[in-house]
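Task card 7
Instruction: Convert sequence to structure tokens.
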Amino acid sequence: FHNNSGAWEADATSSSTSALPTGLTNGTSAWAFPTEVDNCIYGCSVTSGTKAALQAAVNDENNWNQDNDLTFHINYTLPCSPSAVTWDGATWSNVIGPDATTDAIISSSTSPGTFTCQNLEISNGFALTINSGNTATIAGNLTNSGSGLAGDGTIAFDNDGNSLSLSGNAMDFEGIISVEGTTTLNTNGLITLTASSTSSYGQLTGTGTISGNLAIEAYIEPGVGGRYYYLGSPMSNATLNDFNEAGSIMVSENSAQGTAWEWDAANSEWDPAGTAGGSGLASTATRGRGYALYVGTNGIYGPFLRSGDGTITLTGSSNNDATVNQALSYNDGQASSVGFVTGTGINDTEGWNLVANPYAAIYDWDLQSIPADMSSAIYRFNGVNYTAYVKGAGSASRYIAPFQGFFVQMTQNTPSTLVFNRDNRTTSQAATLAKTANYTVDGVSLHIEGMNGDVYDDVFVGFDANSTIAFDNNWDARKLRNKGITPDFYVAMGQSTYSVCRVPYTGPWSFPMKLDYDQDGDLMTISADINELQSFGTVTLEDRKLNSMHDLTAGDYSFVQDNSYGPDRFIIHFSQPSIGLEKPQQQAVAYAFANEEGLNVELGILHNATVEVYNLAGQLVERGEDLNGRVTFGVENGGVYILKVTADNFTESFKVIR
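Output:
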């Protein structure tokens, strides 16, 4: 710095001359002012802007306080700090990094980790990389002069009561955009939340307001031949047509050519998509409502929605609404063909509603408030298999991805509202991950597969003190029918079919299973995941066709499908109780079950046994003496029955649902 003549001297050979130091440039890294004064200090309040603007401000003599007599004291705490700091990939230019009053300039694509700044500028040729576990909190505007955003961390916009904005180049992000508090973010249509797989996708969260359009991607895998997906919109103004990628087809008509449908819960029937909206595919896709959309190519026809695996994109208004309400309707389903259920009774066909996650973030069903007269279970569909989840159990997950549609079931003719709440969103779990139980789970997950693993099904069988031996809306899930040649493997007790079946722990239990499968002669395998089993030490699979017993805790069971035998081939037995007061282990173990023939008792090695059948009122319904082997009582009325078996040194009672 030289403040004498406005120009540097040729040399500094005397005490009254100053020469420009080697390596410095006048006007940028060195300054020469014309006024000669003894003391001067820079006035920091006028310094803001880019590096060039800062250099120009410092090079302006009018921005300096000068005095020959007054001595300016510089304290350890400087009277100003830089208005912008730069990230170069190794360090911030001020070493410590920016804060909420300091602008940040990104001049490297190497992640700076977690930081907070006011305005943020991404320099040409670079991207702001925020990896998982890191957060960039921005209290001002974001200007993208470079390559935008990268990584899967969090970008938080946080300035309560103020409107922040995006400007510059459009940008993609597969992480989390969080608009905090009462902040408003004006997107100017510049941000797309991308998806690279079914488990990796961008999300929107927070409680602030989004102004302007947002584009959101979902990754789908129709596979060879195409399949139906249950999808919903996280946008408030997207139309059904917007699901369709360029060059693809959507058909909304009540014919075999239709590829886009909506479930009319009030009439228990499939309608062409857009029927309720009145404008066909030009109708708004209602947030919170699910739609069945065919995706892929079917033979020579298509592509429908999109061709092959990849993304679909919706663009529009998406917000962090505190709640999203979806009306629920009721129909008993008896006058229509509810083809996706296994049973035909009212309990099976009634009250189905197809809903969807209305938010652009993962939704945690375990946090959901369940309306009165609605079952707690949810049912997803992947185009082939239905999967269920209810309170920690089932082959589906508690976490519902953005765009995901699913069925719920009303159990009474009391139309209600399903209220989705933004407080139930989470970004810490991928929605395709296995469930993380929010409940104590006690039971086994049974998995059956055939066709060399190409087809499969799953069923959960277990125990809970809050459950009953009838179907429990809070603890059980019904069995919905899979598509094509896929097997259906489920518990059949009384008039109900289960994909999740829980009963109270009351001693040894036997569960009659059904297997509906048309591929005669196929080599199949049944396996059991026993990691969550607490109440029993042994799980035995009985093959009634081969009259054999297999310990599933010791390994898988393989068999050849025999269609001539029928669906009632297998029974699952739980024995060797591991909780409570154990009964003395008895060498002879009988069990009871119900099927189309009535109430059955397998007496095993017991001889000359007496079996008494009681209803819940304690009335004796049937009685048999000197019985051996398998015994059937032709009880036709549905209900809960107690079968008491007595033989030499053996007495046991069994609860059976008919």
